[in-house]
Design a protein that fits this description.
Number of strands: 5
Strand content: 25-35%
Distance between the termini: 57 Å
Oligomer: single chain
CATH class of one domain: Alpha Beta
Structural class: alpha+beta
Radius of gyration: 24 Å
């Protein structure tokens, strides 16, 4: 199996909406949500995205800053480690058994 680049969860902030639109045309991103205006002064716009580690550095340019929020790949691996490895249905004594009861559908209103 080949080693894949980790995916980063980033926040991209652009000086204005047009700068953000230009970036998104040039660098299609796996975005998480809609662009929002920032609370700071000016017309800054921000959007969150998921990008390979190598692409994150290429996004930063004049009028655009990129902040890494977390390594999404590492977060995913940590969550997977919390999942049990056993087969909880392996013991036939634990599997639901028996016959269900078939009910007639009386239609709307009973």
């Amino acid at each position: 199996m080949s080693e894949r680049e980790n995916i980063l969860h980033v926040r991209v902030t652009a000086d204005d909406a047009e700068t953000l639109r230009t970036l998104l045309r040039e660098e299609p991103l796996d975005i998480g949500g809609r662009p929002r205006g920032t609370t700071g002064p000016g017309n800054e716009m921000t959007i969150e995205a998921f990008v390979p580690r190598g692409k994150a550095d290429r996004l930063a340019r004049e009028g655009v800053s990129v902040d890494v929020l977390r390594d999404a790949t590492e977060t995913g691996r940590a969550r997977q480690a919390e999942v049990g490895r056993g087969n909880r249905f392996a013991d036939p004594q634990e599997v639901p058994y028996g016959l269900g009861e078939m009910l007639k559908d009386k239609g709307p209103g009973g």
